[in-house]
Design a protein that fits this description.
The chain is an alpha+beta fold. The chain is built from 16 helices and 33 strands. α1 crosses α3. The protein is globular. The termini are far apart.
């Protein structure tokens, strides 16, 4: 039975959305929804909850109405260092809203807000209410000016200082790096206030920088004692009851050299019709039940966070690297997605079942590349008994990949940085991470498994969590048109199909990296949602995350829903009601923790780049112009996978101006010009650890 308070909440929201033409009073809502006078306290609590969630808005006169009827939008605020920002709406399909500096109501980046749409044509608005604050702690430098104490945040998206009262200094001295807890948030007329929680050591090593970033994003290295106590009780004993025995099937994991948490293993065979692919995923739900201490902590964390040389896992090590990890030569509980493809890559049969496997080998991407691409004799001899399987995987990979690209899936080839550390934990090299055939094989097989699970649950009409990716904003694409044309692409009509056209035309050209980045920026970020609106990037009508439950919480949730649908058939009304209430909260929090993890990982890599270059001031390197703006050029160094900025003021031979039409910097006197892809020689002028900037000058 669905709890009474949920029914009442839905009744109130339904009334406001469908039966009202204007904002209404508490009394009107009470009479229309059947609340008795003595139940007014309950009704007030329900209305307060709906206001807090952003579903409805309370006017200054105490009247209530749904936000969409009041020209209001709820979403997350993304701040820019120059004071303005954008609100990314909660509702799928809505365009982002620009918020000018004077209309942010002192919202901070990541805050959930309500914004009033003031210009539908310009998609511009002003924030009128902050629903939820994202930042509780801030890292910064402590300063004293006379009798005033304040902290200047290191995060440049926070454009104001934080006042510290003398009693909240915790002994901090001028110039100390500190962790500050916000005790009051900024308003339009006063700055935020805080208290110093911790004085950090001076940043003399890269590890200190990493610690600061982890601290600022409130990422927890340690697990609560209740979680560790639960994990200590777990054993690896397995029963085959209600599990399919797949231990005699040839099975391998394929991961990076340093990976320890093996989520997925694959098996393949040839059939009369085509191929049979078995994707075995670690059955984390076998060890982690709903609402256990481990589950609630995993839900709070949302995802594992990876950075050079280390990881902050979602699950304790005994689970992530041992009991759940599909290590070779060990029986492990799994969930298998069995997919039968015809010769053209169409799925002709799919099955899902709890299973047990015993992986034959722990393979690496490098090793599989040696076998299939390099035809390395030693490697092929060593894994001779797996050669036939790998060759089948290669054949199926190309079939699935071609099919996916033909249906409109985007294939960005964006190089990723890989930071190599020495034994002291300092960056000794930053290289372009390799993405080879083995990566592509696993990627295609995981996409196929995720789509199969998503479409299966959707067909059953069960509440679930989908991985959605909205279509690009046509206005943002229109802004890219002059840039496309400046590179000779001559794009006349800009729409969603433009992506495919541009990606094909620029493949292998010098401007490929820049245009890939620009195209990606025009796309919305993928997120989790209980409403399936499709995945634009993959051109998939139904997609979810199922294949990484050790490191992503939504995958664990989807596992449980799939298991319930298989073992229990029809879910009870009570269970459906519980899931329908809980899953939107999980989808929203998982999207939020994913954004936090991405930001932390990005900041740490940027910090490592700067630390790597700090002793190279004065040295000269060849580079390639990777981006251009009116203020200067971004230069990609050839010797390392590192970018720096060359300001126009560092180009003393002429006055340079930026031509938007040709997308180049041109000297007024000598007419010398710089375009994306041009080779230049630069000198490292300055490396700023504080701002994480590498400043270059022309040689």
């Amino acid at each position: 039975m669905i709890p009474r308070d949920i029914e009442n909440k839905e009744a109130v929201l339904n009334f406001l959305k469908t039966k009202t033409e204007r904002p209404v009073s508490l009394k009107e809502i009470s009479e229309a929804t059947g609340f008795l006078k003595r139940e007014n306290r309950t009704l007030k609590r329900i209305l307060q909850s709906l206001v807090q969630s952003g579903d409805i808005f309370k006017t200054r006169y105490g009247l209530y109405g749904p936000v969409e009827k009041m020209n209001l939008v709820t979403g997350y605020f993304e701040a820019h260092r120059d004071g303005y920002g954008f609100v990314i709406p909660d509702k799928p399909g809505e365009r982002d809203l620009f918020v000018p500096p004077r209309k942010t109501s002192a919202a901070m980046s990541g805050d959930r807000v309500i914004v009033r749409v003031e210009s539908a044509a310009k998609r511009e608005g002003s924030i009128i209410k902050i629903l939820e604050r994202a930042q509780k702690k801030v890292i910064g430098t402590f300063y004293r000016e006379g009798d005033i104490f304040f902290v200047k945040p290191k995060n440049r998206k926070i454009p104001f200082g934080i006042l510290i009262s003398p009693g909240n200094r915790a002994g901090a001295k001028d110039g100390n790096n500190v962790v500050v807890e916000l005790t009051s948030y900024p308003t339009a007329i006063k700055p935020p206030e805080g208290k110093v929680l911790k004085i950090l050591s001076d940043v003399s090593e890269p590890v200190h920088e990493i610690d600061m970033i982890i601290e600022e994003h409130s990422l927890s290295r340690k697990f609560p004692s209740a979680v560790l106590a639960e994990v200590r009780e777990l054993s690896g004993e397995l029963t085959l009851r209600k599990r399919t025995d797949c231990r005699d099937i040839l099975t391998v994991t394929i991961d990076g050299e340093t990976a320890k948490d093996f989520d997925d293993a694959v098996s393949i065979s040839k059939t009369d019709d085509g191929y049979a692919l078995l994707v075995h995923i670690a059955d984390v739900g076998h060890y982690v039940p709903w609402d256990s201490a481990v589950d609630l902590e995993a839900r709070r964390r949302g995802t594992s966070v990876y950075f050079p040389g280390s990881v902050i896992p979602m699950l304790p090590e005994k689970l992530s690297n041992d009991l759940c990890s599909l290590v070779p030569k060990q029986d492990r509980p799994t969930f298998t997605v069995e997919l039968h493809f015809d010769k053209g890559g169409e799925i002709i049969r799919k099955d899902f079942y709890p299973s047990v496997i015993n992986s034959n080998e722990r393979m690496t991407y490098t090793s599989v590349k040696k076998i299939l691409v390099d035809k390395d004799r030693e490697e092929r001899a060593r894994y001779g008994y797996l050669l036939a399987s790998f060759e089948l995987m290669e054949a199926l990979c190309y079939i699935l990949r071609d099919k996916r690209i033909k249906r409109g899936s985007l294939d960005f080839d964006l190089p990723e940085p890989e930071v190599l550390l020495d034994i002291q934990g300092r960056p000794e090299a930053i290289v372009r991470a390799e993405r080879n055939l083995a990566h592509m094989m696993i990627e295609e097989f995981m996409i196929a498994a995720n789509e199969a699970v998503a479409s299966h649950l959707e067909k059953l009409e069960l509440p679930s969590i989908y991985r959605v990716h909205e279509k690009p904003d046509p206005h943002k694409l229109e802004e890219l048109k002059p840039i496309f044309n400046s590179f000779g692409l001559q794009i006349k009509r800009v729409d969603a199909n433009t992506f495919q056209t541009v990606l094909k035309k620029i493949r292998g050209k010098v401007e490929e990296a820049l245009l890939n980045v620009l195209l990606l920026r025009s796309l919305k970020q993928a997120k989790y949602s209980t409403d399936n609106t499709g995945h634009f990037g993959l051109a998939s009508e139904s997609y979810t995350h199922f294949t990484s439950p050790i490191r992503r919480y939504p995958d664990l949730v989807v596992h449980r829903i799939l298991r319930d649908s298989l073992l229990k058939g029809n879910l009870s009304k009570e269970r459906l009601g519980y899931l329908e209430k809980l899953l939107p909260e999980i989808a929203a929090s998982s999207s939020k923790t994913e954004r936090t993890a991405d930001e932390a990982e990005r900041e740490i890599v940027n910090a490592m780049r700067v630390w790597f270059m700090k002793d190279k001031v004065g040295e000269e390197y060849p580079g390639i112009v990777s981006n251009i703006s009116s203020s200067g050029m971004r230069i990609q160094l050839k010797d390392f996978f590192v970018e720096g900025f060359l300001h126009v003021s560092s180009m003393p031979d002429d006055y340079y101006r930026f031509d938007e039409k040709s997308y180049r910097l041109t000297g007024r006197r000598r007419k010398k010009s710089f375009a994306v892809g041009k080779e230049v020689k630069v000198r490292v002028e300055r490396v700023d650890i504080e701002t994480r900037e590498i400043v270059l000058g022309l040689v």
